[in-house]
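Q: What would this chain look like folded?
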Amino acid sequence: MSIFSDILHDVASLLLPRVCPICGAELNDRHSTVCTMCELTAPLTEMWNDVENPLTQCFWGLLPVCRASAFLWYVEGSPWRRAIHRFKYSGAWSVAYSLGRWYGRYLRQSGLYDDIDIVVPVPLHWWRQLRRGYNQSEYLARGIAEELGVKVDVRSVKRCRYNRSQTSRHKSERWENVEEIFKVKRPEALEGKHLLLVDDVFTSGATIMSLGKTILAASPTVRLSVAVLASSRKSLHQEQ
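A: My prediction, written as structure tokens:
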């Protein structure tokens, strides 16, 4: 079976070469997420090794979290930012999954996320997901969960109200925009579990904090941790 798989991979590589989602260089290793140069120069935060990192501190006094980390620094104009926009708005869901797997390997190696029971992506409203075709946070979550060896739960929590994008909103408006937008459908499935909430980009933190508070209100015995793919240094500075 492995020989057959190798042959199929070689044929596919000739017809549709895999390229680095960051710089466009051809990928020779089937298991690589990005090319060697982009991997070496990736703006990694290293937060997953630090219990009291800047992202964790953003939640202090607002939401009780056990762990929190961002994988990449979100830098204006960088190819990494463009790659995130491609999987968020342009259908490149496989990039989200691959980056999730890469992130998940670091989370697993750190040892700080060994007690995670379930990974929960931030839900999209059904209308937005219908228009986009997928939830990018779900593919990130599936990649992370694959590396942590746990399940993804996309059924227990739903987004019950359609809210406009947070991107162009003032900080105070972002909090108002996410009030009561989530609902826990299956609280019994979450009781007593350690949940890892996953989102793509951390800006004000309003969305993921709203999600966490909704879950805790419905299932008070859960423990929460957070993993976001990217955050800007400016966002973390503003929240402290």
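The CA atoms of residues 121 and 138 lie 5 Å apart.
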